[in-house]
Amino acid sequence: MNLSKILKNSFLILVASLVLTACATQKKSTGQLQGDVYTGTDSVEYLASGVPDRVFFATNETVLTTASRETLRKQATWLRKNSDINIVLEGHADERGTREYNLALGERRANSAKDYLMTYGISSNRISVLSYGKERPVDSGSNPLAWSKNRRSVSVKAN
Amino acid sequence: MLFRYLFILLIIFPIKVFALIEVDITRGNLSPLPVAVSPLSIDDSSKENFKKILKKENLGSEISTIVENNLKQSGLFNPLNKNAFLQEPNIANLKPRFEDWNLIKAQALITGKVTFVDEKLRVEFRLWDVLAGKEMMALAFTTVPSNWRRVGHIITDKVYERLTGEKGYFDTRIIYVSEKGPKTNRVKKLAIMDQDGFNNKFLTLGNELVLTPRFSPRNQMVTYLSYFRNLPRVYLLDIETGMQEVVGDFPGMTFAPRFSPDGKKIIMSFAQDGNSDIYTMDLENRIVERVTNHPSIDTSPSYSPDGKYITFNSDRSGYQQIYVMNSDGKKVKRISFGNGLYGTPVWSPRGDLIAFTKLHKGKFYIGVMRTDGTGERLLTENFYQEAPSWSPNGRVLIFYRETKTNSKGEGFSAKLWSIDLTGYNEKMVETETDASDPSWSSLLSN
Fold first, then answer.
1. Consecutive H or E run containing B212
2. Higher per-residue confidence, A19 vs A93
3. Angstrom distance (rounded) from CA B176 to CA B192
4. Is B391 within 8 Å of B403 (Cβ atoms)?
5. What residues pair up with B263 in beta bridges, in sequence order?
6. Which end of chain B has fewer CB within 10 Å, C or N?
7. Closest-CA residue to B68 (of B34, B102, B101, B91)
8. Does the pLDDT of residue A11 top 60, yes or no?
9. Residues of B numbered 293-322 whose beta carbons fall under 8 angstroms of chain A's beta carbons: which are they?
């Protein structure tokens, strides 16, 4: 086999794999997942009309997505209007991690949400944080969609 | 009364011979040693007395069954069927007819005698080398009758030690988390049982979430995480008295606790403002010390048996990996470099290995590596399993495994499993309920 043939073959493989990846990504974003972040509304509850109570995370991630930031801005607006209400941010992880690391991860996720709320003027003494790690999944499934719903930070009224 | 230390007097008879049979436990044992456990002989009046006190028809057979079962579970021994035994237990204990035992292919023979003396249980037993026709060991114990199961475990430990050259792990307990209810709202209680699953007891009621109990390597203290009043904190529990207390006064979640090898300190993670670092608290003077100070997650700390080093889990490289540092937090060194994520490092009581959980390509592994990270060996692969805990002799690992649910989210279970360091003898450990987070005690008697 000469060099040009090898190159040609690998080019074909490259093209083929690009097509495959494209399909895969497309498939993912058309469902309730973007990447592996949950974008559906299945488990979502509302603190008030139009104010979702939770944000979702990618696997092993604690950064807020654009959608999460939007949700948290709505929560911040609502919290400013209801200054007598305090909240607990409950951070969760999916079941695909070790228990202790997941406790830390849940705490970090809840704090990501807390930090963002604080930048929108919510005082830290109105927000407490509680990590459940992987102890309280909302979806008992053992599949990527279920796991995506479980990787979350939920704002719960404390009073 | 939970557990009282009960006196077990050891009277050692003279031993004349050196070992001829030996069991090699350093590699997978594919041909377990054939051993005959003759029922311990018992005279009629002792039998009646024990029947009254313990409601056991024949305490001699009951104790030998414990020994037999322990030996079988170790995977190193093959206890032979009692129906094939030709010699009566009382005569065998005086002088075995080695030809008879040889005939059924027994290489080792255990005989013994149970008597009721001064309201106490007296047990003597002998270990015989059948091929050499010699006595290898003879011991006697005296204890309160209610301790009869422990006597069976102690006999097993002595036999195991004599034949393998290493301490046993049978007179031990396992503390674990008992689980019930739907996956989305599990009720968890602390529970404790003998190593063979008997004498199960619940230590909490299930009103609050409890996780990760760990035995002190020195005594009957346990440290664990409780969500009492929705404040996840590390607690200390004395399982003899039932007394418990919060460890330290931290303004946030403390978790992932373990004892130092001398039992005097607790090492754990403290999470604040999205960052988890490792701290210790001295149980005598209550002094808290910070061991790591890094913006990444640092958790799952475990001391080396000499107390000089700590292995822990950190994502400072971007992902969960295993690190080793000096016990003062200096000289942090990453030791896991294989493909995948690594968690739950736990130092072997022998000091030479670190057991861990590994996640790679959607599968979970329990494995071991040397303390510098070389020689990684994966022992078992599954959909989900984690949190290995060492037997006190460092030969067996116990961990938990969770099942995959079906498309409706049903069929979830969590069970304890154990596996030899060799990778052989993998088996489920029976528990009354679903179970997770096992921790093995040290030997109760020594």
1. strand B210-215
2. A93
3. 6
4. no
5. none
6. N
7. B34
8. no
9. 297, 299-300, 313, 315, 319-320
Question: Which pLDDT belongs to residue B27?
Answer: 61
Q: B9-24+32-164 architecture in CATH? A: 3-Layer(aba) Sandwich (3.40)
Tokens of B55: 């409601």
Contact with chain B for residue A115, Cβ under 8 A: yes
Which residue, chain included where needed, has tokens 């409890």? B210
Distance between CA atoms of residues A65 and A46, nearest Å: 19
Tell me if chain B has a CB within 8 Å of the CB of A100.
Answer: yes
Residue B255: closest CA among B276, B230, B229: B276
Lowest-confidence range among A91-95, A127-131, B85-89, B369-373?
B85-89
CA distance A109 to A54: 11
Interface of A with B in 3-42 (CB under 8 A): none
> Which of A100, A111, A131 has its CB closest to that of B344?
A100
Sequential DSSP letters for A5-61 = HHHHHHHHHHHHHHHHHHHHHHHHHHTTEETTEE---TT--EEETTEESEEE--TT-
- Chain A residues close to B273, C-beta within 8 Å: 111
Average pLDDT, chain B: 93
Span of B2-6, B378-382, B424-428 with lowest mean pLDDT: B2-6
* Of A100, A137, A143, Cβ closest to residue B300: A100
Cβ–Cβ gap B256/A138 under 8 Å: no
Spell out the long-range contacts of A43-50 with Cβ–Cβ below 8 A and sequence spacing 24 or more.
A43/A138, A43/A139, A43/A149, A43/A152, A47/A75, A47/A78, A47/A155, A47/A157, A48/A78, A48/A82, A50/A74
Q: Which fold has domain B173-440?
A: Neuraminidase (2.120.10)
Q: Are strands A46-48 and A51-52 parallel, antiparallel or unpaired?
A: antiparallel
Supply angle C-alpha B268, B272, B276, rounded to 5: 45
Residue B354's contacts (CB-CB under 8 Å, 6 or more residues apart) are: B302, B311, B322, B324, B335, B345, B346, B347, B348, B368, B369, B370, B371
Q: Residue A133 and residue B211: Cα distance in Å, rounded? A: 11
Nearest CA distance, B300 vs chain A (angstrom): 6
Residue closest to B189 by CA, chosen among B436, B383, B386 = B436
- Please state the rounded mean pLDDT for residues B435-442: 97
**CB of B151 closer than 8 Å to CB of B63:** yes
Q: Which structure tokens are listed for A15?
A: 């093209």
Question: In terms of C-beta density within 10 A (0-12 exposed, 13-18 middle, 19 or more buried), how is residue B408 classed?
Answer: exposed
ipTM for this model: 0.93
Contact status of B179 with chain A (Cβ, < 8 Å)? no
Domain positions in chain B are 9-24+32-164, 173-440
The arithmetic mean of pLDDT across residues B59-80, rounded, is 96
CB of B387 within 8 A of CB of B345? no
